[in-house]
Amino acid sequence: MEEAQYIIRHHRHHPREHQCSASVVKHIKAPVDIVWSAVRRFDQPQKYKPFVSGCIVRGDFKIGSVREVNVKSGLPATTSTEMLELLDDQEHILGIKIVGGDHRLKNYSSIVTVHPEIIDGIPGALVIESFVVDVPEGNTQDETCYFVNAVINCNLKSLAVVSERMAIQVQWTNNPHPHPLTILSLVSSLHLLEESTESEAQVKVGHAGPELCREEREAGTSIIYWSIRELVRSFTPMQKETVQDN
Fold first, then answer.
1. What is the C-alpha separation between 148 and 231, in angstroms, rounded?
2. Which of 54, 133, 137, 207 has its CB 3.0 to 4.6 Å from that of 108, i.e. a possible disulfide?
């Protein structure tokens, strides 16, 4: 099934005149079960969201549960109160609605879906996150969508780094001596991460500015460097000689 079909099936919002809506897509080189294990944690969004410093869930972890999220500096907010609307472990769907907080995202609802796909011949995941939200007074629909898209893009990039690291750790468990080409893949990931442009981070709503993705980039870079170091340590002498010969 193609991206457009997934969006039609799971991400059909019906924005009113004073609202805006959009979808963000991310391809991740990690199996669906690994990616979903991070996405589904309504009680621990800080596992991959770089601007969340902490979270407390009221009551049991179930549909209708409410969480209090503490937001790090860099966004025009310090807290957000959010309700779990949908959690489908079979279809890999998470639905969340913001019901309070000291921010301007009123009547915000989002849906995240995770789908299997093959990337470069290995199992990967297609993640789609969509939203609908009121347009704050004094801002346009384009400005509001630009801001929310920037935040979601940062979150999904961080999700990719976290999930791909988990996938590598699983590979090490199954194969303690990974192929040298795995290092080349990690170096490529590092290069792409450092190529993040300021245009993705600049936002026009509130006071958040070009530094929006700094924490996510720094965290992702350190994770990849760590992965490369650990992979080099895991090489056997034969593999090291092979790399030198080439």
1. 36
2. 133
Distance CA 210, CA 203 (A): 7
| CB neighbourhood size of 145 (10 A) | 17
Contact status, residue 125 vs residue 35, Cβ threshold 8 Å: yes
Domain boundaries, the chain: 3-245
Q: What is the pTM of this model?
A: 0.74
Closest CA to 127 of 240, 232, 34, 190: 34
- 137 half-sphere exposure, CB direction, 13 A CA radius: 0
**Token pair recorded at residue 215:** 């924490």
SS3 of residue 137 by DSSP:
coil
The rounded distance, in Å, linking the Cα atoms of 119 and 35 is 14
Neighbours of 54 (CB within 10 A): 12
Taking residue 84's Cβ as centre, other Cβ atoms within 10 Å add up to 19
Say which CATH architecture domain 3-245 belongs to: 2-Layer Sandwich (3.30)
Residue 139 identity: N
Q: What is the pLDDT of residues 49-104, one digit of tens each?
A: 998 999 999 878 889 999 999 998 767 788 999 999 999 999 999 999 999 999 88
